[in-house]
């Protein structure tokens, strides 16, 4: 079973001109372990969410076993059941009242027998909870961060999906837990799918992987075996990834000790073997510079594994340097004499084709090193030794067809640098014009429009009052407008219930009782509640166009005149601004829960939707988030006051401009017109 992405592109939800993923053409073959690496913000999590059927591509298509994943904005549950995603932060995916409920929520879509469920929970706990902290009745929120990460992994592993997609699985985990996870991945057979792991932890995962996809600015910058990618350290560095420790140590060894070993010895054991072999070759060639090299190596604080590997061979080496006389010693030439030993030149040439080549190129690379025609010794990059050191599944790349081809992106370090600068520019949030307006002007506009709306007693007046409010949303990101529609939709349900109750007439005479509906009273209620709806929409506009700090300052400024007459306005300002701040928070929490329901509950829903039956479960995490946020805000407020400057006095941060005067004047004109209208 394969996952295939064909020309997949994903736009930022709030800015369709910003591409989070560009032209992704990737095939992940079954049995494979693929790493997604890249600078922070390069698109790893987004790609994982696309693979998991959580984010729908804006263009292109994704196939699971050649079946299109998305159909009319949804993914079929049968496909979702084959995909398991662990999120970057465990708190993004845990929500239940107890550890047991977490497991049951993940396993429910699989409709297992009670015994099988029990067996899987026990097996997962045995793997991920060696200390026995997962008491079934315990709240997941009482676990430490690392324990939460283990629980998140345990619930996903218990579901045993074909494809395990893990976002930074080792973040916040101690070494022992990382070791447990690696053992589990190595041990598990995965005939139907594979692993895709987004990570910055190259040391841990490179030795395990079959394939590494390097992302930069939302595009594939390099794609190949771990060894092939390590042989192009400049690509990794240009993509902002950094090098695994072994590759760094190999560079240091060459720089300081003049000892060349391949940069793709991915484990300490392989690196040590390569160093020992290089030293043996040098000794046998009569080279004499080793003691000096070793002293330099030790003085430079090189990794202890390198020093240990050099150990006795170094002491036995002759004192005088000698040119590499035999072909077997070619790899031991000092860097100054030969910047790249012959095998490295060969590799560089092969991998220089990487961007436009198929993954076959990367498979070919290790073989090229061992080619009999190669002037270098086979011990430089022991491809045969690779498999003996780290047994792994047959490389999925060996069967990669044209669909696995990499996009013909220019991945020279220079262009990657340019791509990351471009990506940073793209990442700047779109500045809606309203964000630049002084919050005091927005407060005044808001108050004027709300009072004008409340003055209206007829539908025409209310419709006229709605016009300036709705005009305020022009130019705001689509995501914000969608959020507003959601708020309004919930309010409309409240309206329908209110109107139905207001119009309902129950009379008990004559007996038993008669049921009627007073349309006039219902119509009055519709008008009243619609006025309220307009106030809510205006409040939402104000909240989404005003950063929190500005809102508090603006409100403080409005209220400071009351303060002069000894009215305590600080707490009022805080309370009002918190209410505004919580609206977007609730929307965000809703989005998070929708993601959990689709990823863990395997619900075939459109992004942003939540099943009715999951709503009770949403209440607890929502309240918790609100409490956390409130606590954070309280602390921030306290800190701000520590300088002895109350919030309401921060007027100097605000800057009144001509556009603010125009905004207030426009509000005054609207207010006067609407007030006249309401009096007709
Ligand atoms: N909902 C969103 N709206 C706008 N931009 C977004 C959204 N989600 C992600 N992005 C942007 O998309 C880019 C890729 O984000 P993503 O989380 O995929 O990166 P990443 O490689 O996983 O980063 P990290 O290593 O820090 O987790 C970032 O620039 C991020 O700011």
UniProtKB/TrEMBL annotation:
InterPro entries: AAA+_ATPase, ABC/ECF_trnsptr_transmembrane, ABC_transporter-like_ATP-bd, ABC_transporter-like_CS, ABC_transpr_CbiO/EcfA_su, ECF_ABC_transporter_ATP-bd, P-loop_NTPase
PROSITE patterns, alphabetized: ABC_TRANSPORTER_1, ABC_TRANSPORTER_2
Region of interest: Disordered: 366-422
Keywords: ATP-binding, Cell membrane, Membrane, Nucleotide-binding, Translocase, Transmembrane, Transmembrane helix, Transport
Record GO terms (molecular function): ATP binding
Domain ABC transporter: 3-242
Family: Belongs to the ABC transporter superfamily.
Protein name: ATP-binding cassette domain-containing protein
């Amino acid at each position: 079973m394969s996952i295939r992405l064909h020309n997949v592109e994903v736009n930022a939800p709030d800015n369709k001109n910003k591409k989070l993923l560009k032209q992704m053409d990737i095939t992940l073959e079954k049995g494979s372990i693929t790493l997604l690496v890249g600078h922070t913000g390069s698109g790893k999590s987004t790609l994982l969410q696309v693979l998991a059927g959580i984010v729908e591509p804006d263009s292109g298509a994704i196939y699971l076993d050649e079946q299109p994943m998305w159909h009319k904005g949804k993914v079929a549950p049968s496909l979702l059941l084959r995909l398991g995603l662990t999120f970057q932060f465990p708190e993004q995916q845990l929500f239940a009242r107890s550890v047991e409920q977490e497991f049951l929520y993940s396993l429910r879509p699989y409709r297992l027998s009670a015994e099988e469920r029990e067996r899987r929970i026990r097996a997962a706990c045995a793997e991920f909870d060696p200390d026995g902290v997962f008491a079934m009745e315990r709240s997941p929120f009482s676990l430490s961060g690392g324990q939460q990460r283990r629980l998140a992994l345990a619930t996903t592993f218990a579901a045993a999906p074909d494809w395990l997609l893990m976002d930074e699985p080792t973040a916040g985990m101690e070494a022992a837990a990382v070791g447990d996870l690696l053992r589990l991945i190595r041990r598990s057979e995965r005939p139907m799918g594979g692993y895709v792991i987004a990570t910055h932890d190259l040391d841990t995962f490179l030795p395990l992987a079959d394939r590494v996809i390097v992302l930069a600015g939302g595009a594939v910058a390099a794609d190949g075996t771990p060894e092939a990618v390590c042989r192009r350290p400049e690509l990794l560095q240009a993509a902002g990834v950094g090098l695994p420790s072994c590759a760094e140590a190999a560079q240091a060894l060459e720089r300081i000790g003049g000892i060349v070993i391949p940069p793709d010895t991915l484990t300490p054991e392989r690196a040590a073997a390569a160093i020992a072999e290089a030293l043996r070759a040098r000794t046998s060639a009569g080279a004499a510079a080793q003691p000096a090299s070793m002293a330099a190596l030790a003085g430079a604080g090189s990794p202890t594994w390198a020093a240990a590997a050099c150990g006795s061979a170094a002491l036995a080496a002759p004192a005088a340097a000698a040119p590499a006389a035999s072909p077997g010693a070619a790899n031991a030439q000092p860097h100054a004499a030969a910047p790249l030993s012959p095998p490295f030149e060969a590799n560089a040439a092969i991998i220089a084709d990487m961007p436009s080549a198929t993954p076959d190129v990367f498979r070919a690379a290790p073989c090229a090193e061992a080619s009999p025609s190669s002037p270098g010794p086979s011990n430089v990059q022991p491809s045969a030794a690779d498999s003996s050191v780290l047994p792994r599944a047959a490389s999925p790349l060996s069967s990669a067809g044209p669909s696995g081809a990499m996009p013909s992106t220019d991945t020279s370090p220079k262009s990657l640098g340019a791509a990351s600068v471009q990506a940073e520019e793209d990442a700047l949030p779109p500045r809606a014009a309203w964000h630049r307006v002084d919050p005091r002007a927005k407060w005044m506009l808001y108050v004027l429009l709300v009072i004008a709306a409340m003055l209206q007693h007829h539908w025409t007046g209310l419709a006229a009052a709605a016009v300036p409010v709705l005009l305020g949303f022009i130019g705001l990101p689509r995501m914000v407008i969608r959020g507003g529609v959601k708020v309004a939709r919930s309010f409309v349900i409240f309206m329908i219930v209110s109107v139905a109750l207001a119009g309902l007439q129950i009379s008990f005479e004559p007996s038993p009782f008669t049921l009627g509906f007073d349309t006039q009273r219902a119509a009055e209620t519709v008008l009243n509640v619609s006025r309220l709806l307009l106030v809510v929409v205006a409040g939402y506009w104000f909240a989404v166009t005003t950063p929190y700090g500005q809102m508090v300052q603006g409100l403080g400024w409005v209220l400071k005149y009351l303060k002069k007459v000894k009215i305590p306005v600080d707490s009022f300002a805080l309370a009002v601004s918190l209410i505004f701040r919580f609206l977007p928070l609730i929307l965000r929490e809703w989005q998070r829960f929708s993601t959990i329901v689709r990823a863990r509950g395997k619900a075939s829903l459109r992004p942003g939707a939540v099943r009715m039956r999951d709503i009770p479960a949403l209440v607890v995490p929502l309240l918790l988030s609100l409490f956390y946020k409130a606590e954070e805000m309280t602390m921030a407020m306290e800190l701000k006051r520590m300088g002895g400057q109350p919030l309401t006095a921060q007027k100097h941060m605000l800057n009144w401009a001509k556009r603010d005067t125009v905004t207030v004047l426009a509000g005054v004109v609207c207010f006067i017109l609407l007030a006249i209208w309401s009096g007709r």
